[in-house]
Amino acid sequence: MYSFRAIVVMLIFSAAVYYGMGMLGLTAAHSDPLMALAGAVVLLVALIINVWIYLKLAGEHPFKWFKE
After folding, report:
1. Where are any strands of DSSP class E within the chain?
2. Apex 41 CA angle, 44 and 54, nearest 5
3. Is residue 8 included in any domain, yes or no?
4. How many domains does the chain have?
């Protein structure tokens, strides 16, 4: 249950980041090197925050692929 909750929060956060990038025009700025670099930095920071969210919410209860 902890992993499921963490994954849901990560999906919500990722959707918010994608929405914010769309509002700033970073999703359609592939030809401008500075905008592409800014988008890459935003995605890298979002990835680090997603990992932090998962570790804080799931903590000591890792995701189990198979029931034992």
Report:
1. none
2. 25
3. yes
4. 1
Give the whole-angstrom CA distance, residue 41 versus residue 53.
18
Alpha helices in the chain (DSSP H): 2-24, 33-58
Asked if residue 65 belongs to a domain, the reply is no
Which residues constitute the domain of residue 11?
2-58
* C-beta atoms surrounding 10 within 10 Å: 19
Give the integer Cα–Cα distance in Å for 66 and 52. 24
The answer as to whether 13 is a domain residue is yes
What is the pTM (predicted TM-score) of this model? Answer: 0.80
User: What pLDDT, on the 0 to 100 scale, is given for residue 13?
Assistant: 97
3-state secondary structure (DSSP) of residue 48: helix
Q: Give the model confidence (pLDDT) of 29-54 as tens digits.
A: 778 888 889 899 999 999 999 999 99
